[in-house]
């Protein structure tokens, strides 16, 4: 079938419209579409007649044959029929520019007439289509076209060379469309309001319950939903799930939920998210503006002023552009006599109007109330968006006000109809048309008022039936909806207060504490707490004499005794082969005084230094943090355990003091771990979030096969990571977070992350054959590589052979021409990360996944579960120091509890001691706040 300009233009707007026109169907019922067609034809006829009148006799022709264009002598041709094998057009006018020299052919310029003042890209493509058809008989490209448009007959020159490629692609799509036996998929779009097939297509869409009925759904969203098997509005409505909004997003705007809009349509109920902050304050002025957007001309402002006594409608009219300022001044004069006016409108058209009028004509600068009203109007649509979901397919004022019961006096009244009335009035000056416009504008203001009052009432937390104008069941607050599977136990709720009280009184704890304790002596005895004897807790099990030298450590002079001997008692835990015992050890020692150095000496840290002496031994503190850090037991539970098993009660302040001392003692250990990681040839990196005092923060993990280091950061930006890894020259293994892209060292992206993402997209788009093929080829490639890794390990000698398979995969699959959005996105991802997906094939000992870092992140996630609610930044940093030590011990096969009890700070030295490779190379240092346990001889004495 031959493609004409009518089919070409229709396809640019909608493929279904092109199909219907090609099939010979004629639409009806859209007055605006008929008016546009009539205006275009009259404008073209007037333009052709004007060109004819300006041309000299003999210099223009009408409908010349296309095969004689090369030998033409005229300068202007009108209504020129041009045709090729597949394309056909009737060029409105054709200018011929004579040759400028020998060997240079004459130039032909197609001219098209368009009545609108503002042109679109589609108008330029239409001229390019004429030029493409014209290039067939001329057997050469046409490089220039013209568009004569608007009230002033403005001429726009269009360069054809930049549009020819687009025109060819469109014509190819039209050819494929028309040669197909089945019609295209019906999709409603913005052009429907201007299309003659509007009624037909909408009826079909309603019958199919098509997704395009929801005007907020984009083409991309529609394709994603169809890939999941969701094709109708009803199906989409069942996908909505109420979610608890995170505290971090409390101050941000709620996103729009298409599924909730579909649910509102299905249930014919209004859904509200949160509380729309809209209060009717001051003097409310509901205003609506009518204009001709094509000219940037406004001719009518309607203002409905609402006071406690009632509402008054005001209309300000402009006959022409010169009277626009008078209309604006009258509107400002109305605002000046009102007390604290508040302008309320619907949509962005009025916002643009206020800005343009303020810049064109300004307003009184000495009127702050008017300035505030104009600069800060209330756009009701922005309040409704994403917060109030009416059971309408769109958020247009006509749909929402119609749902609330408002009716316009003229059926089919719309903004496009008002343009027809205005143009007709300008020609005839008919007062009846002017009255129609003023009445339509006033009704828009009234509809706006009704909608605004409804939204204001919805902002109340508990709307009553008489307040909303509808029954209580028709307005549902999403915050009150229970998330699915929120609790495994049934929650009792009743509109009867007495039944609620009776149900509450039946709870187990309530009856145990309030009822049974009064009627049962056994329950009363069970509730009594057994008081423990505090003296028994500190009964001494062993006394150790700490006999120090009486020589001054500085001057080696004999010192004198300073006071009587001192003694301190410590709670300690002794570990046997399969037991743990609490013991109280008393340490006694004598302090000395040096007259020359003027200082005391003779006592070690077990006796404290000026303040309260430490009362707990190193093994006791090590056992405490072994449970918290390694076993992930909350401090409260650890305290209960110590109280029940060992009879020791610790308050939270003691825990905090222990943690601070232990973190300070092992801070250098963490730095040693970090230096070893950065100095190696492999680093795994990952990050996760944590909430610290209602503020989102991040914890990064750096690890290799042997060490783990956790680092705190206030943001997710990778700047500090660049400083930390600035000298690293090995391979960085990470996920696909963009912060790692700028590192200069070789990188390996985690292929497990990629596999998970591909699988999720595969589940979302089960019918996308192109994407399925990419995933299948990648799965086969990765499977063969992983099988070699399982047999031979991570050795370059055996893995390098797969580089050729990777290149073949890119040439065959990734570099192919794909059409589906999922396949294109996947293709772009593979191309972007080509140098980072298979780096491990060229190095020894480099894994293809980031499991080492993910395993370390899981360790922090277990700890985060019980510290996130109450920790501070300082406390979190202390936890990360101890967790770094704990995980490093695990990675090296060492016992974390034994390492803490040893008092050693270098994990490598402790590992050598444990494996018996060499003797201890330096004296054991003591942790602050802890004392060394007794030696082997002392332990044997105590056991006896």
Quickly describe the structure.
The chain is of the alpha/beta class. The chain is built from 37 helices and 25 strands.
Please, could you describe this protein's structure?
The protein folds into six domains: 5-179, Alpha-Beta Complex (Lambda Exonuclease, Chain A); 190-272, no CATH class; 283-459, Ribonuclease H-like superfamily/Ribonuclease H (Nucleotidyltransferase, domain 5, 2-Layer Sandwich); 534-617, no CATH class; 653-746 and 851-915, Nucleotidyltransferase, domain 5; 751-838, no CATH class. Strands 1-2-3-4-5-6 form a six-stranded mixed sheet, with helices on both faces. The chain has a five-stranded mixed sheet with strand order 10-9-8-11-12, with helices on both faces. Strands 23-22-21-24-25 form a five-stranded mixed sheet. Mean pLDDT is 85; it is low at 461-473 and 918-944. α28 packs antiparallel against α30 (803-814). With 944 residues, the chain is α/β, with parallel strands linked by helices. The protein has 37 helices and 25 strands.
